[in-house]
Amino acid sequence: MNRELVGRWLNRILSDGVFYPDALDVISTVDGWDDWFEKWADTARTYEALASQAEEEGYRVTASEYHLQAALAWQYATFLRFDSPNDRYHAERQRVSNFDLAIRDIRPSVARHEIAFEGTHIPGYLRLPVDVERPRCVLLIGGVDSTKEDTIELSNLFLDRGLATFAFDGPGQGEYFDQQPMVPDFERYTSAVIDYLSEREDIATDNFGAIGRSIGGYYALRSALTDERLGAVVVWGGTYDLSHFDTMEEVAQAGFLFASGIEDHIDARRTVMQYLDLAPLQDLLRQFRGRVLIYHGAHDQNFPVAQAQRLADSMPDHSRVLEIDPEERHCCHMRFPRTRRLMVDWLTGELGKA
Hints:
By secondary structure, this protein is of the alpha/beta class. Helix content is 47%, strand content 15%. The chain contains 13 helices and 8 strands. It has an 8-stranded mixed sheet with strand order 1-2-4-3-5-6-7-8, with helices on both faces. Strand 1 (110-117) and strand 2 form a beta hairpin. The termini are far apart.
């Protein structure tokens, strides 16, 4: 179990910004998923205590750095943990509160926003690059086991290239889950975010980008199909539909069932398979005039590579680029220093052409 966890999850955890000694210590010592939550929770509490001490001693930047590590540890405490809602909700609150303390002194700055939409408030974080006048903005969209708080390292890559980022939790994700479970039309929430950002004077509003991880890639593409303001998107380990649901790993299935907000598993399975399907938008796929990079691992254990190929085959040749990494698994985390830069550079280049 330990060896498997190290092989499969260490690089993903590191790519999101967790310190190497902490990541290795947790995943090399857990006996199984049963004590996964507590080991990450202990790591988070350690950093919360260190942050408090640094704050008392007047080291605000260090306190922010420790709060960020606490937030990431709480994030990974909930990772693939869908069988204990009380633990999950506690970790969600702790993650957000630590992240909001961390961003006081993170540079480039991070600003929390809450976007009013249909009686709810979509939470997100806007970051602007230094010394760039009205940069274009990239939306960062997570999957069922990722949140807006685990995008800090990905955001840094875009900021270094002169692009702004806006990471948000949508229906069924992160802290927004309490307000809105999974919906069939995630794109309406993305458009609400773009509407909000389009009112700002400090970013360019003529052309937005998006990158979506896992099912977030599906959401990013679906959003681009219905909102022309999204001119370029990256489908990062995404899928066309969930027709293969029963062959997915059990923890992945559990994540989708949880995100649906439906307790009965039969109803939840039926709902997520109905909600997550691009077939009804096939005409829009054929007519798509934007640009899409579909980046996929040949050995993806949750979204078979055939799903990536199906996406590509559904779109005009001039609109899409299909990259299949022959050595990678889901979301290509094993060689993240290279794969993330490939996706970021592609999107930066596409937005720069507009």
